[in-house]
Amino acid sequence: MSAGDRPPGARELLAGKSVLVCCGTGGVGKTTVSAALALLAARSGRRALVLTVDPARRLADSLGVRSELHEATRIPIPGEVAPGGELWAMMLDPKRTFDGLVERFAPSAEARRRILANHYYQRASESLSGSQEYMAMEKLLEVATDGRFDLVVLDTPPTRNALDFLDAPRRLLAALEEGALKWLMMPRFSAARAGLRVFGQGGAKLFSFFEGLTGSEVVAGISEFVSSFSTLLEGFRGRAADVQSLLRSPSSAFVMVASPTRLSLSEAVYFHDRLREGGLPLGAFVINRVRPRPASGALPETPWAAGLPRRPPEGVDADPDAWGAMLSQTWEHLREEIRGAEIDRQNVRLLRRRCGDDVPYLLLPELDDDVHDVEALDRLAPWLGGSRIEE
Amino acid sequence: MISLLSHRVVFVGGKGGVGRSTISAALGLAASRRGLRTVIAEMNGSETMADIFGRGPVGYAGGELRPGLHAVSITPSAAVEEYLVRQLKFRVLYNLVFGNRFIEPFMNAVLGLSDLISVGKVMDLEWMVDATRPSGLAWDLVVVDAPATGHSLSMLRTPRTMMDITRVGPLYQNARLIRDLLEDHRRTCFLGVSLAEEMPVQEMSEMVARLRAEVPIELTGIVVNGVRPRPFDGDELAAFRAFERWAARHHGPAEDAARTARRMVHRRARHEAQIRQLAATADLPLVEVPLLPHGRRAEDLLDPIALRLEPWL
Ligand SMILES: Nc1ncnc2c1ncn2[C@@H]1O[C@H](COP(=O)(O)OP(=O)(O)OP(=O)(O)O)[C@@H](O)[C@H]1O
Ligand SMILES: Nc1ncnc2c1ncn2[C@@H]1O[C@H](COP(=O)(O)OP(=O)(O)OP(=O)(O)O)[C@@H](O)[C@H]1O
Ligand SMILES: [Mg+2]
Ligand SMILES: [Mg+2]
């Protein structure tokens, strides 16, 4: 380690990396941390892109990213930037990305047109579980390999479980292959042609049953979507394999963002273990919104015992009762904050003991205000750099 | 005037994690205490009610939480199975095809099938008869702990979508019945839940606008959950200002206390700004529910919350 006993921080995390994927459950700060990491990289002289999903409106506004753009936007950064450093941001549009894939892999202009115009394709591309995540990875592959950026930081969509994100492509492909093809292709195409008698009877019955349930137009429409879509699956599978190898390469790393609550950290442990099992690289834990510890440490039970005046001191004009009540209430709150800060640190210690010290743990403080501009992101930078929130 | 309990079905919706389940539980408990036989329907197979009330999973069949208060956990695949087996009459046929676990999500994605059938299951509860009760109905109130915003929206839209897609057949007929109940203001209403924070407020405003445009369900009001009370008023606020000035010349505990007091005041101001924003953009009545102290059992949150909801019952 270079700078004395400074703990490893984002510098170590970023060194030699060209792809970072920020995972975590809903609302923990994935979007904020992704932007802060990209900003830090830009300041140190790299061309960094943050690929973001659903940023809070004020953050999007102040960064100037809009989903209608579908393009990387250069974000001006005031203050010191090492030569060559640039910050770019781009907002994901899963539907557009899906359409882009269809355009790329459709065997003919006619097939492409048929798929894109199909009503069921339009629904599926928006609501098929896993499609948002799959498309995030697809976009990542695109921007990570086109040479325009030194670093791409991928923010991920809110999921209940951080692993949902990793499982998404498999889920999507399975849904398309198993769910759609095996079934809908069966009665009309395969069963009749290949004489799959096992399904044949049941499939045909079910097919007509569904026609009875929804009308034959619907079944025909879905069948059409599925059969034309099947020509794309080879291409999709290929891309999914490329994403997998990109994520496994030594220049990629996952960043697990969590809050310092027990629940969130046990998610983090689970994620860590699963990445290990899967041979995927964990770059860092980022524990966001750690409650700051007041400067004076442990405090007595009452403000008076700590030497604060029970009544307004000489020259201070305030109602004595109100002064006392205000200070008592504040004191209670301060002690609550100290307890909270201790609980957070205790939880992080448990995580550390469980997952070992070969991964950096970056602890970001809870700021007094939301993080919605470059200036606020900069305020998180020193902690990302590896300075300690005392433990 | 909001009167949630004069409806038969209340959908409780909002962004993930804002407290939809807690508000649903408090509402259900309050209703059952007023003698309404109440069932809380959880979507997506979650078992939050069982957790809150400290019992084992209630499952798709449902179970009792407290006297007069029940919960059911609606799993999409179980609802689809129940519906299709009833329609198909042949379980073998069902198993043959839906035995593949990817088909149900696929059919939901292209057709909204499980969403429709899950909402249909909620409506089944409303329709359920019980000849032994004076009303002849099994439930006086159905509280729906709806999924997070995006999924709730597509769920509430699904009857209309299904009608557009199918135009004939039993699914069309079912969708129409469900739509009629969903959009009947005397029987069904929607209660929003948000936090006084930027993202949930933004999401709730958008949700309300989209419901207004796409689903004519009755919008009652929004519960603003987890709000911090105003720390100081009047003389106390003046005392805080005086203390802040005095503390600027001191170190140690005085400095910490001043910083904490400032944080309390700022946080409240930020919450108030978000509440004003929500009131303006959603244009609905709001009720505040305070952030209750950490470390309480989930069940202990319910009484103080129910008290806040009182004027809307
Ligand atoms: N360290 C921090 N201090 C104070 N506020 C923070 C901090 N980190 C994030 N926030 C705020 O918390 C909110 C949620 O953060 P963010 O949008 O980054 O979370 P997310 O994990 O991307 O959420 P989602 O899962 O909904 O996409 C934002 O309003 C953000 O400004
Ligand atoms: N007013 C409150 N004061 C303190 N804690 C609260 C309050 N409301 C909810 N909580 C707590 O916040 C957490 C989230 O609440 P809840 O599970 O009801 O949210 P939800 O919207 O149903 O979440 P999900 O999207 O996961 O279903 C729970 O631990 C709950 O006990
Ligand atoms: Mg986000
Ligand atoms: Mg819930």
SSE map:
The complex is a heterodimer of chains A (391) and B (313).
Chain A: H1 10-14, E1 19-23, H2 30-43, E2 47-52, H3 57-63, E3 73-75, E4 86-91, H4 94-105, H5 109-117, H6 119-127, H7 131-145, E5 151-155, H8 162-194, H9 197-214, H10 216-229, H11 233-248, E6 252-258, H12 262-278, E7 282-290, H13 320-355, E8 361-365, H14 374-384
Parallel strand pairs in A: 1-5, 1-6, 2-4, 2-5, 6-7, 7-8
Antiparallel strand pairs in A: 3-4
Chain B: E1 9-14, H1 20-33, E2 38-43, H2 48-52, E3 63-66, E4 69-74, H3 76-88, H4 91-98, H5 103-111, H6 113-127, E5 141-148, H7 149-166, H8 169-182, E6 188-195, H9 198-214, E7 218-227, H10 234-247, H11 253-282, E8 286-290, H12 302-309
Parallel strand pairs in B: 1-5, 1-6, 2-4, 2-5, 6-7, 7-8
Antiparallel strand pairs in B: 3-4
Helix pairs in contact in B: 1-12, 3-4, 3-6, 6-7, 6-8, 7-8, 7-9, 9-11, 10-11
The structure holds adenosine-5'-triphosphate (2 copies) and magnesium ion (2 copies).
In short:
The complex is a heterodimer of chains A (about 400) and B (about 325). With about 400 residues, chain A is an alpha/beta fold. Chain A has helices at about 10-15, 30-45, 55-65, 95-105, 110-115, 120-125, 130-145, 160-195, 195-215, 215-230, 235-250, 260-280, 320-355, 375-385; strands at about 20-25, 45-50, 75, 85-90, 150-155, 250-260, 280-290, 360-365.
Structure, described:
The complex is a heterodimer of chains A (391) and B (313). Chain A has helices at 10-14, 30-43, 57-63, 94-105, 109-117, 119-127, 131-145, 162-194, 197-214, 216-229, 233-248, 262-278, 320-355, 374-384, and strands at 19-23, 47-52, 73-75, 86-91, 151-155, 252-258, 282-290, 361-365. Chain A is of the alpha/beta class. In chain A, helix 4 (94-105) crosses helix 7 (131-145), helix 8 packs antiparallel against helix 11 and helix 12 (262-278) packs parallel to helix 13 (320-355). The longest helix of chain A has 36 residues, at 320-355. The relative contact order of chain A is 0.15. The model of chain A is unreliable at 189-200 (pLDDT under 50). With 313 residues, chain B is of the alpha/beta class. Chain B has a single domain, classed as Rossmann fold (3-Layer(aba) Sandwich), CATH 3.40.50.300. Helices cover 53% and strands 17% of the residues of chain B. Chain B has helices spanning 20-33, 48-52, 76-88, 91-98, 103-111, 113-127, 149-166, 169-182, 198-214, 234-247, 253-282, 302-309, and strands at residues 9-14, 38-43, 63-66, 69-74, 141-148, 188-195, 218-227, 286-290. An 8-stranded mixed sheet of chain B has the order 3-4-2-5-1-6-7-8, with helices on both faces. The termini of chain B are close together. The model of chain B has no long low-confidence stretch (mean pLDDT 92). The chains are: A alpha/beta (391), B alpha/beta (313). The interface between A and B is large, with 68 and 60 residues. One magnesium ion (MG) is lined by residues 20-21, 48, 145 of chain B.
